[in-house]
Amino acid sequence: MISRSSRFAVLFAGLFLAFSMVTADYAEARRGGSFGSRGTRTFQSVPPTRTAPQPAAPVERSMAPNTTTNNAARQTPAAQRPGIFSGLGGSMMRGLLLGGLIGLLLGQGFGGLAGILGLLLQGLLIGGAIMLAIRFFRSQSARNQAPAMAGVPRSMGNFGRNPAAQPDADNVSSFPIPGIGSGFGRTAPASDEITMTQADLDIFQQRLTEVQEAFGREDHAGLRRLATPEMVSYLSEELADNAKNGVRNEVSNVSLLEADIAESWREDDRDYATAALRYESHDVMRDRASGKIVAGEADQPTETTELWTFTRQNGGDWKLAAIQQP
User: Which InterPro entries match (predicted)?
Assistant: First the structure.
C-alpha cells in the first residue's frame, strides 16, 4: 500500500508539473508558431543557413493559398489505374468463374470440373483479347497527344522556374547581415532570384528591433507601419489574448547576434527576402494589475533564432511578412 508520504510526493510532483506548463505557455505566448505569407513559397521549405541550419517549421497560419496541397489532390485520381479484374473484362471474368463454381457445387462431378476448366479457358481468352484492345487504344491516344506536349519547356514542370536556380539544401547562404561576420558575399541572381544590398540588410536588422519593441509596447500603429496587414492581424490577436489573460509581454534590449539571408526573390512587382536571425532580448511576461513578472527573468536575456520574411512592393519600404521557427 502506498504510504501517506509517497502520495504527498506524487501530488507535489503533479502540481509542480502543472505550474511549469502554465509558465511555459506564458513564455511562448508571443511566439505563436510559424505564421504569415511568403508569396508562392509560403508552403515551401526554407534553405538552411549558418544561422539556422535546422529545417524551419512549416507555416501553420497563412492567408496564401496552398497550391501544393491542391495540386497533389488533383493528381491523386489520375494516378489510380484499373486492375486486371476491374472494368468490363473483370466483370466477365467474375461472371464466368461464378457460373462454373455454381455448376460444380450443384453436383456435376468430374463433368462439372471439366466444364469449369473449359469456362476458365474461354474467360482467359476473352480477357486477353480485351486487354490487347485496351493497350491498343491507349497507345493510339498517347501518339495523338505526343505532338501537343513536344513544345512545352521542361521548366514548366517547376512552375516556370529554372531548376538550376533553386537553392541547394547542402549550400549555406553567403549573405550574412553586416556587422556580424566578415561581410557578405554576392552571387549573380538567376531566374527570379535577386541580390540584397547593404542598405536592405541594414533595414532588416532595424526591423527586428522595431517590431519587437512595438509589440512589447502594444503599439498597434507602429506594427501597421512595420508589417503587412496579415502579420498585424496575427500579432494583434496575440496581444488581445495576452490582455484577456491579464498579462503583458515586454520585449526590450534587442541585440542581433548572427544573421544571414536564406533566399531572396521577386514575384511580379513584389520582392521577398527570408533572413535567419539569432538575437538576444529581455523578454518577460508581467501581470497587468500588479506588474509582477510571471514568466522570464528581467536581468537575464533570452536567445532566440527565427526566420523572418520581409516584402516590399515596387521598391517601397520593407515590411515583415512572415515569422517561422527553426
Answer: NTF2-like_dom_sf, Tim44-like_dom
CATH at 274: 3.10.450.240
Handedness of CA 274, 279, 285, 290 (dihedral sign): negative
Sequence letter at residue 319? K
Terminal C-alpha separation, the chain: 47
Residue 100 lies in a domain: no
Percent of the chain with pLDDT over 90: 47
Q: Residue 81: is its pLDDT beyond 60?
A: no
For residue 303, tell me if it sits in a domain: yes
Residues 6+ apart with CB under 8 A from 266: 192, 193, 194, 272
Distance of alpha carbon 313 from alpha carbon 172, whole angstroms? 27
- Is the confidence at residue 293, as pLDDT, over 80? yes
Contact 249, 216 (CB under 8 A): yes
Domain span holding position 256? 7-72+173-324
For strands 35-36 and 319-324, give the pairing: antiparallel
Lookup: cell for 175: 549573405
Q: How many CB atoms lie within 10 A of CB 64?
A: 17
Which pLDDT belongs to residue 137?
67
pLDDT at position 125 = 72
Collapsing DSSP to helix, strand or coil, 296 comes out as coil
Residue 127's pLDDT is what? 75
Evaluate whether residue 1 is within a structural domain.
no
The 10 Å Cβ neighbour count of residue 196 is 20
Cβ(214)–Cβ(231) under 8 Å?
Answer: no
pLDDT in tens, 190-243: 458 999 999 999 999 999 999 999 999 999 999 999 999 999 999 999 999 999
pLDDT at 33: 83
Query: Which residues are bridge partners to 91 per DSSP?
Result: none
How far is residue 52 from each of residues 24, 45, 57, 260, 308, measured CA to CA in Å? 23, 13, 11, 9, 11
